[in-house]
Write a structure and sequence with these properties.
Radius of gyration: 22 Å
InterPro entries: ADH-like_C, ADH-like_N, ADH_Zn_CS, ER, GroES-like_sf, NAD(P)-bd_dom_sf, SDH-like
Cofactor: Zn(2+)
CATH architecture of the largest domain: Alpha-Beta Complex
Number of domains: 2
Protein name: Enoyl reductase (ER) domain-containing protein
Family: Belongs to the zinc-containing alcohol dehydrogenase family.
Organism: Populus trichocarpa
Shape: globular
Number of strands: 20
Largest sheet: 7 strands, mixed
Strand content: 15-25%
Distance between the termini: 44 Å
Helix content: 25-40%
Length: 370
C-alpha cells in the first residue's frame, strides 16, 4: 500500500509539473520583430535557488536591438529565446538551503549569473566574467515570463516603500551607479552627459545622488532635453548630428558648465559624441563611455592623451543592487518619472510594447505589469 501511495504521489507531482508548464508562459523572440507568448518550462529548483513570479519588467535598449535585428553588438540570437531582463517579482518557492528569503518577499532580480571561479570573478569584477549567463542575452533565456528560477543571492528584498516597478528599474539604474563609481563622481565633480535617452537620464539621476554639483546634458532631441531639465539637469544643450559643429558646440557646452568639466559620460557612442566629450573635458579629467552604438570609432585620442584625459569604459555593473535600493528607499533617486508607458502581458500588448519602445519618440521606459 505504501508503494501504491508513492506511485500516486509521483503521478500527482508529474501532473502538477505539467500544469505548471502549461501555466508558465514567456515572451519568446522567434525572429526579427517576431515575439510569441508560448509555454516556458522552468529548470528544477536548486537548493540555493528561488522561484519568482515576475510582476514588473522594463524593456531595455538591448532588448530592442534583439527584437529589431536578432543581435546586440556581438551577441547574436541563433535560436528561439525568452526576452527581457529588467525585472522584479514575488517569491513563490525557495530552495532547501535558502535562508535569506521567504515565500511572499518582494524582490528585484540581478539578471547575470557569473561562474564565480575565474580570476575576474575572484577579484570581484564578476560583470566581466566570460562565462556570464545573463537573462535575455543569447543563448540565455530572459525573464519576460510568469515565473523564473534564479539564484537567491541575486534576488534583493525590496523595502515596503519601494514598488515592484521601481525594483525593476534597479537594473538600468545599476548602469548609472556603476558608471559613477568607475568615474569617481563626488561633490566636486562637474559632469557632462552626452545623450538624454534612458541611460543618459539614469546617469543624470545617479550623478546627482553621488553628489555632482553641476550636470549639463546634451542631445539632438528637444523633447528628451526638456525631460532632462525636469529631472534636474542644470543646463540642457541642443546639438546637431554634424561632426563639423563639434568645435562650436564644445565652446557652448563649456560656457554652460561655467567651470571645468571633470567627467563626461558618453551615453550614445558615436564618433561625434565621443569627440565632443574628449574635447570638452578639461585636462586631467575623465571620459566614460557607456553607450555602445558603434563597434569602431574615429576620435581625437592623441590630443586628449596629451592633456591626460582618461578614457574608461563600463560593462553592465557589479554589486549595485543594495545601493540602488537604498537610493530608492530614501528618495535620493526617483525613477518613477522615467516610466512613460505601461502594458499588460498579452500577445497583443507585448507586440505593442516592443513597437512603442523601438519607435523612440516620447517613450523612455516601457514597463510590463504582469
Amino acid at each position: 500500500m505504501a508503494h501504491g501511495g508513492g506511485a500516486a504521489a509521483d503521478v500527482m507531482a508529474c501532473k502538477q509539473e505539467e500544469e505548471e508548464e502549461v501555466e508558465n508562459k514567456a515572451a519568446w523572440l522567434l525572429g526579427i520583430k517576431t515575439l510569441k507568448i508560448q509555454p516556458y518550462h522552468l529548470p528544477p529548483l536548486g537548493p540555493l535557488d528561488v522561484k519568482v513570479r515576475i510582476k514588473a519588467l522594463g524593456i531595455c535598449g538591448s532588448d530592442v536591438h534583439h527584437f529589431k535585428t536578432m543581435r546586440c553588438a556581438s551577441f547574436v540570437v541563433k535560436k528561439p529565446m525568452v526576452i527581457g531582463h529588467e525585472c522584479a517579482g514575488i517569491i513563490e518557492d525557495v530552495g532547501s538551503e535558502v535562508k535569506s528569503l521567504a515565500v511572499g518577499d518582494r524582490v528585484a532580480l540581478e539578471p547575470g549569473i557569473s561562474c564565480r571561479r575565474c580570476n575576474l570573478c575572484k577579484e570581484g569584477r564578476y560583470n566581466l566574467c566570460p562565462e556570464m549567463k545573463f537573462f535575455g542575452s543569447p543563448p540565455t533565456n530572459g525573464s519576460l515570463a510568469n515565473k523564473v528560477v534564479h539564484p537567491a543571492n541575486l534576488c534583493f528584498k525590496l523595502p515596503d516603500n519601494v514598488s515592484l516597478e521601481e525594483g525593476a528599474m534597479c537594473e538600468p539604474l545599476s548602469v548609472g551607479v556603476h558608471a559613477c563609481r568607475r568615474a569617481q563622481i563626488g561633490p566636486e565633480t562637474n559632469v557632462l552627459i552626452m545623450g538624454a535617452g534612458p541611460i543618459g537620464l539614469i546617469t543624470l539621476l545617479a550623478s546627482r545622488a553621488f553628489g555632482a554639483p553641476r550636470v549639463v546634458i546634451v542631445d539632438v532631441d528637444d523633447r528628451r532635453l526638456s525631460i532632462a531639465k525636469n529631472l534636474g539637469a542644470d543646463e540642457i544643450i541642443h546639438v546637431s548630428t554634424n561632426i563639423q559643429d563639434v568645435d562650436e558646440e564644445v565652446i557652448k557646452i563649456q560656457n554652460a558648465m561655467g567651470s571645468g568639466i571633470d567627467v563626461s559620460f558618453d551615453c550614445v557612442g558615436y564618433n561625434k559624441t565621443m569627440t565632443t566629450a574628449l574635447n570638452a573635458t578639461q585636462s586631467g579629467g575623465k571620459v566614460c563611455l557607456i553607450g555602445l552604438a558603434l563597434t569602431e570609432m574615429t576620435v581625437p585620442l592623441t590630443p586628449s592623451a596629451a592633456r591626460e584625459v582618461d578614457v574608461i569604459g563600463i560593462f553592465r555593473y557589479r554589486n549595485t543592487w543594495p545601493l540602488c535600493i537604498e537610493f530608492l528607499k530614501t528618495g535620493k533617486i526617483d525613477v518613477k518619472p522615467l516610466i512613460t508607458h505601461r502594458f499588460r502581458f498579452s500577445q497583443e500588448e507585448v507586440e505593442q510594447a516592443f513597437e512603442t519602445s523601438a519607435g523612440g519618440g516620447n517613450a523612455i521606459k516601457v514597463m510590463f505589469n504582469l
